[in-house]
Amino acid sequence: MQIILKNLKKAYGDLHAVDGVSLVIPSNTVFGIIGRSGAGKSTLVRLVSLLEFPDEGEVYYDEVRVDNLSKDELIKRRRRIGMIFQNFNLFSSRNAAENVAYPMEINGMSKPEIDLRVKELMALVSLEGKENAPISTLSGGQKQRVAIARALACKPDILFCDEATSALDPQTTHSILALIKEIQKKMALTVVMITHQMEVVRDACERVAVINDGEVVEQGKVTDIFAHPSSDVTKDFLTHLVGVDEAEAVEQDRLVHWSKKRGAYTLRFRGGSTDQPVLSRISRDLGVEFNIRAGGVQKVGDLEIGTMVVDISGDDTVKQKAIEALRAQDVVVEEDQQ
Ligand SMILES: Nc1ncnc2c1ncn2[C@@H]1O[C@H](COP(=O)(O)OP(=O)(O)OP(=O)(O)O)[C@@H](O)[C@H]1O
């Protein structure tokens, strides 16, 4: 299911929460929407998931316009939209299986049909044996698995994940993201992930839109955006990823800091350039020195992106030459503005 947004606008009084968003979210993919708190992510997802309607603009699912459906059509359409949230939104009065069964009961499915599907879904999210568990006895990750099973109960074609891993620890986040990716492929879903965590975008999404003050400031393939971020907001997110607390980082993605000082330049090496001795060559050719403050290699999909935070010694002309030489080697160089 392809989702097309055309110039969506939503204001609350004078506040333009969503201010002219146009996007194409391809079918059969995991698409990330990232932004800081207050950027307008939740408002946008409420518009795209038909929970609210825009002041202006249009929403299409494939060729069908869906922001102006009649009440009956809307109810029917919404049944095929799955949603999961940060706080799980499960019924504490029902056990795990009864939570998963709930949307099917509302849809009037027969008891035997529901029982069969609940069994399938509990297996899909690796929760066999937990059918009768009260919600209060489940871990955060298990709760989110129940929520995912419930979201998939009525065979949706779109799944919205609103900060779905924000309340989870890094390892559990990893396993939930892996599950979402697996389900996306199995069910050929269009998954839209709303997040403020670049780690989630890196680990789960194929494409991403960065939003700020209600507008899309950058969008594209995740690998391209990690290697060549253009907006300040995206660069900020990536810098935060560089400085990620080691205790929270997943082992292989950790960036090692040698120095408490921030370097003046962030260098991003992509693909093949991570294997090349680019710095030592430029250092030798131009007589500059690179003082490396932090560094590491991250995997973004199949691509390796190296990040280094460095200072460059020498006068401005030599520094400029070194930067040009780096860029000529396809290294992205960002200067710290502070
Ligand atoms: N129902 C509402 N009434 C009034 N203002 C609202 C309403 N919903 C959102 N806003 C405002 O719109 C702006 C965007 O909010 P939104 O919740 O969409 O941002 P967000 O990116 O999801 O932020 P967060 O990550 O903190 O949830 C905020 O300034 C918020 O206060």
From TrEMBL:
Xref: Gene3D superfamilies: 3.30.70.260, P-loop containing nucleotide triphosphate hydrolases
UniProt feature coiled coil, ranges: none
UniProt keyword list: Amino-acid transport, ATP-binding, Cell membrane, Membrane, Nucleotide-binding, Translocase, Transport
All residue ranges annotated as the ABC transporter domain in the record: 3-238
One matching Pfam family: ABC_tran
InterPro entries referenced in this protein's UniProt entry, alphabetically: AAA+_ATPase, ABC_transporter-like_ATP-bd, ABC_transporter-like_CS, ACT-like_dom_sf, MetN_ABC, MetN_ABC_transporter-like, NIL_domain, P-loop_NTPase
Gene Ontology MF terms in the entry: ATP binding; ATP hydrolysis activity
GO biological process: amino acid transport
PROSITE patterns: ABC_TRANSPORTER_1 (PS00211), ABC_TRANSPORTER_2 (PS50893)
Protein name: ABC-type metal ion transport system, ATPase component
Species whose genome carries this gene: Sphaerochaeta pleomorpha (strain ATCC BAA-1885 / DSM 22778 / Grapes)
